[in-house]
Amino acid sequence: MKKGFVFDLDGVITDTAKLHYIAWKDLAAALDIEIDLAFNEQLKGVSRMESLDKILAHGGKKDDFSIAQKETLAEEKNKHYVELLQALGPQDLLPGFKEFLNAAKEKQVPCVIASASKNAPFILKKLEVFDAFDAIVDPDELTKGKPDPEIFIRAADTIHIAPEEAVGFEDAQAGIEGIKACGMFAVGVETTEPLYQADLRVKQLSELTVDELLEK
Ligand code: G16
Ligand code: MG
Q1: Where do the annotations place substrate binding (predicted)?
Q2: Protein residues whose CB sits closer than 6 Å to any atom of ligand 1
Q3: Closest ligand, as measured to the CA of 152
């Protein structure tokens, strides 16, 4: 019997990956680095600074910038990304998510956000679902990114349940690995690539009911 739900944001609640991609592609182009959609898959669920490191390594420029310069580049990308987020609204919720969230709230199942994004509170407000969540794990307080289970352990902790009592929803392989590493039940929301190790795999949350997950 499960007692709480832990949601990733990008790829589970809304598809901001395409906006991250636009902002990273522009920044990379200014540095003479080309990235494509296949490469963008590697950035899903990965923190801002780690994403920048991957892009620089991809362009053979891993050691060309100081930490301060990299921070400036990451800030530039984020400024562009936040501009792109301005147009976001409830119409950008992924199919089935709102219905699933409403059903969870009706049954008083606590819901937490476990996203690598520092923009998560802003995005949730734009999507008009911020108030439905009991907590948002602050990525600034974490020592390790996904696939480490830290963010998922922290998420369960904020709603006072054990990881084994929670269901985690993820669209990235690194996220699924983090969920499984702490004994949580993993629902993989598959967009393009297949997700390995997930206990259940769906294309969208409308394929699931709250009741069937609580019984897992
Ligand atoms: C999301 C995205 C990643 C992004 C990360 C950090 O993770 O999938 O591509 O790099 O957040 O975002 P920000 O730059 O806004 O802090 P998640 O965990 O929601 O899938
Ligand atoms: Mg994600």
Answers
A1: 8-10, 24, 43-48, 51, 77, 115-119, 146
A2: 8-11, 17, 20, 43-48, 51, 78, 115-119, 172
A3: 1
Q: How many C-beta atoms surround the C-beta of residue 207 within 10 A? A: 14
Q: Using CA atoms, how far apart are residues 105 and 26, in angstroms rounded to an integer?
A: 40
The pTM score is 0.94
**From the candidate CATH numbers 3.90.1170.20, 3.40.50.1000, 3.40.50.150, 3.30.565.10, the one assigned to the domain spanning 4-15+89-214:** 3.40.50.1000
Ligand 1 mutation pick, 10, 53, 125, max ligand atoms within 8 A of CB:
10
pLDDT tens sequence across 124-139: 999 999 999 999 999 9
DSSP state letter for 131: G
The domain limits of the chain are 4-15+89-214, 17-85
What residues are annotated to the active site?
A: 8, 10
What's the ipTM? 0.94
Ligand closest to CA 47? 1
